[in-house]
Amino acid sequence: MKLQRRHLLQTLGLGALTGLGFRSPLSHADGVTPPLRIVFFVTPHGHVPRGWKMPMPGQPTEAFAELALVGVPSADFSPVLQPLHPYRDRLLVVEGLARTSALHDIAEITRTGTGDLNNHSIGVAHVLTGGIALQRAGSPCTGGMRSIDQELAVRTIAPGRFGSRVYGFDYGPNGPIVPFSFLGSGQATPIVASPRTAFGDLMGYYHPPATSDVPTREARLAAMRPQVLDAVAREYAVLAPQLGTEAQQKLLDHRDLIRQLQASLGAGPSAKCDPTVTEVDHVVTQFMRLTKMAFACDLTRVVTFVAPVLEPADLGYPASETMHGYAHQSIEGAPSCGQTFNPMAEKALIDLNAWYAGQFATLLRELDSVAEGTGTLLDHTLVVWTSELATPTHEHTNTCTILAGGANNFFKMGRYVRYPTVADNPLPKLARVGPAHNRLLVSLLQAFGQSDTSFGLTSSRTRDGLAISLTGALTELHRA
Amino acid sequence: MLSTLISYLSREHRGLRLFSMLTIALLAAQLECGDSSRVETDPVGSAPLRRLSNSEYLNALADLFPASAIAVSSLPPLPADSEVAGFSNAAEAQQPSDLRIARFEQIANLYAAALAKDAAAVHSLVGCDYATPTEGTTCANKFVREMGSRVFRRPLSIEEQDRLSVRFAGWQADIDFEAAVQLTIASMLQSPQFLYRPEVAPRSLNAATSVPLEPYAMASRLSFFLWESVPDDALFAAAAKDELRTEEQLRAQGTRMLANPRARRSIWSFHRQWLGLDRILSDEHNSRTEEVDPLWSAQTPVAASHESRLFIENVLGNGGTLRDLFLSRRAFVNGDLARIYGIEAPADPNSFVEVLLPEGQRAGVLTRVAFLAGYSHRGATSPPVRGNGLGLRLLCRLPFSPPPDADLSQPMASPGDGPKTNRALFEARTAPTSCMSCHRTLNGVGFAFENFNAAGAFQTSEQGLPIDARGTLVGTDIGRPIDGALDMSSALSESKDVQRCATERWVRYALGRAPESTEQPLLAELRDKFGETHGDIAKLMLDIVTSKTFRLQRATPTTAKFGVSR
Lengths: 480, 566
Hints:
Chain A is of the alpha/beta class. Chain A is 32% helix and 13% strand. Chain B has 25 helices and eight strands.
């Protein structure tokens, strides 16, 4: 069935807003580049190298290496990357970055002996922040700063447009839920797990084309929404000065969000997009379509999607197994986990990631189906696929990352690139590692026209006291 | 100073009669004259601004509007509260988000629309005629005053009454009286006076000085701690008479409130969060392997959680003790749980009936499915997981983190080695010295529960081998070896370390923040009293309510001017 605005009106308590959507390509004035959007596609457990990596014959391992993807036949793509073959001209596959900030954290926690060292929690706290995890007694460690998606949200929000949307599923490999996106230190960004609910949220900002009908009483009531929010916002402003500094700030933050909602309701002309989402297929597919709709209607420019962990049985493996159990047996010769390698576990993890890749390809296809400017929505979107771990065996180095989409030509796409392991790292027992993942986050900021040169942790030290820099963009990925 | 105090009262609370003016004048005069002998100067912890937690918010709506016919389950889902130390009411983790603001608006609109759905509903809600302009004005003022005081949990100030009445009149002029009622309710339910628990403190006093909380704020502290909801009429009446001030008054109110069924909400909520009883509801526990329990279904965890709730509410909610938590054999089971417990199923397998669990096998919360299976894997028990869970929850320990290269997989017997018990496999896995620094503590706790499999069923042997359930409680005040889960429960039921942890968590739950250094003497005193009563939970709650940190507030040191900014 199709999710349409009118289906949600009762849920929203707004019975009178019965706008009809219509289909038309997004149009932009000639010569104006459409805005850049970004999706963070986050999957758990990292990648099995044999399922993800592609051979680079003749390329050096001690220097930055690249392989043009356009001429590579589908059969030569690795199993996990294969579903993305149709989009190879708009792929930038990045091998070899290190979560240096996580290594720094692990080194510090190991040195001081206090803190949650669980690799999943640490990885989740770092992947989108690049900053030191927040340690709180009695809780798993969590993000210690605003994550990159929320930073971009703050910088791209406007009346009529959400800063970001965070969709997907709770991730709790060890029990307590560990979120990926953070509004601030220790403050998880709310995550919406139901496409229908998420659709309803978006429709709160959607402006249907005006009609000439005489408004009903219900419509007049609904039209009072901004006035009610204005009244509410004033109450926050009145109360705040009577309280202490921290309380004031909390209330004013709340007030600002009400003002944002209020401004959004009155903002902008009618949307020229298709405000419907088909409610069929896997729930992940529905979220991919919803993301397209959100971008096409410019209801947000930042989406973070956290994929669910499938059960092995979903992929045809024995119901008695778990993906987390398989993860530890999935890499031959992995130095961690004195666990016996199990070829079936490796295959299961590869199949899991190939399944994610299929959903990732669906997202690319959906974005590519909407005409925008002289190209498609995909040309003006950057989709980033990352994970809290490099490998299912808890590594934080030699990560697998994929950038996809046209990204408004900021990145030089159509390549598989590999970074050499020439950087120092904070953990004593590791050899040299690739560049810090933080630097990728800097590149993302710069893709949005920001001038930042760092994000998260800026420096660390080796055990011998040598400085390690985590700053500067990964210019090898950029076009210019 | 006196003038500032009077200004504080008169600006925002004129008409509230919050404090007796005489008392305040006396207090101010003492401070002004440097006579602090009668002013309480004991260190009282901070009182960060608290937003209603999700459960407090939903309880508040249900209690404010019992006739609204809106089912909580039909509301759009609120974003999860961020947890600190397992508790979802921590003020430090309540940063607002756009999604939360949107949900608050949706839900406010839904309630407002339902309450004012037609003229008859509005008429019954306002309780006065509004046919003529004069009647309309009088009725609108009455509605704003009465609805405002219920939603804001205190009488409106004159300024608030004016503001809200002017808005009401505007909306009435724009649409009609009924619409104004609807929009007024929608705005009130999004206001900070409803969603937060503002406690305005006198400002220009010495910052080290503690003064009684104003009575309506005290009423809210009581009701949200003891009921996870809004005050009732009796509490309002006591606040109006300034009878929420002395220890005796608070103890009497607290006693009355704990006898109300609403108190079960808090007692369940606290234990659910303290003991992590929701853990059984996570996806991992939707299934069990054939070998562990072929009949386990996705409904089993739901039943186990419900059993926990019935146990906590019925056994601890009626004068229960920490001893009961660990030792009571009373249980509430459906057919599925009776099967796991090896007892006769109720006639209707879908209903829950009260039973006594088998003597010598089970007693207390630690021998129930929610804990035993919730702290297991689907295919096997994990003594370290149970040990870590128990230490984290009952002893308030920091979690043990496996080192980055630890092997976290389930240990299996090597082919050719013959059968081994789970215990033997874990002992072998964790034997290296580097492992034992943590596992010395973890294993000894977990091994004591090995008579219960990963579904929580009782077992005396595995793989044809007898189970050894001897354990230890390293690093606690229990300095003796433990033999099995019942012995473990018995030891924990008298442990001062458990009492200390429970007390700390109760104070955290009551205050919405971690106890502070100035409150350590209070914690020690509460723990001692708790121990003397074998852990009388209602008494501990009353002791918290009557403690200075709960009934007093610190003055706010600031030079900021009072004022209204719009």
